[in-house]
Amino acid sequence: MINKLSKASQQSQPTTVTPTMVKINGGKFTMGCDSEREDGCLANEKPAHEVNVLTFWMSKTEVTVRQYMVCVNTGACPKPQWQEKNAPSYYKAMGEALIGDNYPIVGVSQPNAIAYVQWLSQQTTKKYRLPTEAEWEYAARAGTNTAYSWGNGIGKNNANCSGDLCGDKFNYTSPVGSFAENPFGLYDMHGNVNEWMEDCWKDNYNDAPVDGNARQGCRMNASGVLRGGAWFYEPQWLRSASRNGYPLDFRINFVGFRIASTN
User: Taxonomically, which superkingdom (predicted)?
Assistant: First the structure.
């Protein structure tokens, strides 16, 4: 069990540390991977389809350790996995990247993330939630139709991914905002940590919503959706179209979340 936190986290916490939100103006876009414009498309990213997304707000960064731990300290949010007794040993190697105030929270499940947005909504005048898949991809693409918001190649020092493949200096997670923001003003939409969505998982886009809403009503015990790739992943998993399904209670050192709001 890892109880140590950074010095700032050990100090008395404010009642709420609200993530900075960015207004994302609505519009239409092509969701999914189109083999005619992008290499490496996977079956679960198809068929590419037009979606109309309404205006919404999204957190500028992934939810940080400091932000999440305020909720934990009130008793409203479960502890991250790394604070539990008999937590997996791989957390210990992360050092400051695990416990630093400005690093993304990891070791949280989708229900943990939902507990956070419900708590935050109660503390403020806004109703927060997890992003839908459509909102997330719309924001990640930020008006582009390339594999990444900066082009079709991963380039160097654009994101945090596995090893030296992205040319970044980080072995694990990086402090949020370590790389350039995308054209919509968002950080780390590619890499750093995988992010939980509101949607349930299906392995294709057949009959997917085209109004920007979350996909609901999947089979019983359905998995959740993770987007964005992570420090643990190779570049192809950081593409805007890339998506993965995991059990809702999945927790590990490369999974976190960001938040959204419609008001």
Answer: Bacteria
Residue 1 within any structural domain of the chain: no
Would 144 be classed as within a structural domain?
yes
Query: Domain residues for 138?
Result: 7-261
For the chain, what's the residue count? 263
State yes or no: pLDDT of 65 exceeds 80.
Answer: yes
**Which pLDDT tens digit goes with each residue over 180-200?**
999 999 999 999 999 999 999
As a whole number, the mean pLDDT across the chain is 93
In a domain, 2, yes or no: no
| Ramachandran quadrant class, 80 (left: phi over 0; alpha: psi -120 to 50; beta: rest) | beta
Indicate the DSSP class of residue 120.
H
How far apart are alpha carbons 146 and 257 in whole angstroms?
23
Q: Rounded CA gap, 159 and 153, in Å?
A: 12
